[in-house]
Amino acid sequence: MKDVQMDGLPAGEARLRRVDVSTKSIASQIVDTAGQGAKKLESKLLLCWDELPHWRRDNIFIVTGYRQVKPSYSHTLYSLLHLHNESVNIWSHLIGAILAISSGTYLYQVIHPRYESASSTDIVVFACFLGGAILCLGMSATFHALLCHSEEVARWGNKLDYSGIVALIVGSYVPALYYGFFCRPTLMTSYLSLIVLLGIGCGIVSWVDKFRKPELRVFRASMFVGLGVSGVIPVIHGTIIDGYQALEDRMSISLVIFHGALYIFGAVLYASRWPERSFPGAFDIWGSSHQIFHCCVVLAAATHLYGMARAFDYHHTIMGSQCLID
């Protein structure tokens, strides 16, 4: 006996298709349910501001997305795989540190073969900058990753974080002042010494517990802005005595100014806690002031590296290697 046809198909084939559709529907429901369950589980692993211990309460305008505090490094590493309000802070600087290491390796292989006149000093000044960038970005990523470990570890990591910022700012000025004031060694030494001393002062502020209180956030940010602005003095001086175009050729002054402006812009947002101050809870996971600051730091470092590469190229041309000054 033949099967009765249904909708132009044999009844048996039609039944098989219905079973197949039903099976796919059930599978889809299972996947959706599992996904919803995973999201609910992940949300339960995250805390709100009111659930945080006192030492974790840093920014009241970030309302949700906090990781649970557990004195376990494995728990900390596992948290990197989940989305929370520190994810952007961690990964932006972790990836930045990896790129800085890669850039340093590449430049080391390129500098000597590119110009016979390239010296060990070129290597050293670039190492100061890239070393500072690696320390800053690496320490920052480490601090934000370990923030959910314990109060003691978080305090220690915060000190490293600020020390890394000092290393990056000071390291950034080394190649800029070396190439910009190469023909004026006395000025170069004086300005480098001044910036190093200011960097040491900021380092002390970073490690002394008295200055680490949340209510002194603006003071800390001001100290670091001051360190960044200290580079404006040699830029203005160099422009007066040698002219803007000369400094543009020697140290890519336009990019130096732009990279400094990025630091200041990010620091101002960080200190004012905007935009989350105006929209509490809206920027918990994406777009908070601290995250914008992190992105500004990475962009500034990349900009400065490009500028110093241009300065290096000019320094090893016939015109750039001559000191024709009054």
From TrEMBL:
Chief site of localization: membrane
Chain sites annotated for binding Zn(2+): 144, 290, 294
GO cellular component assignments: membrane
Pfam families attached to this UniProt entry: HlyIII (PF03006)
Subcellular location: Membrane
The keyword Cell inner membrane belongs to this UniProt entry's keyword annotation: no
Signal peptide range in chain numbering: none
Membrane topology, as annotated: Multi-pass membrane protein
InterPro entries linked: AdipoR/HlyIII-related (IPR004254)
Keyword list, A-Z: Membrane, Metal-binding, Transmembrane, Transmembrane helix, Zinc
A single MF term (Gene Ontology): metal ion binding
Superkingdom: Eukaryota
Membrane-spanning residues: 90-111, 123-147, 162-181, 188-208, 220-241, 253-271, 291-309
GO biological process entries: intracellular zinc ion homeostasis
Keyword S-adenosyl-L-methionine: no
Family designation: Belongs to the ADIPOR family.
Protein name: HlyIII-domain-containing protein
Organism: Clonostachys byssicola
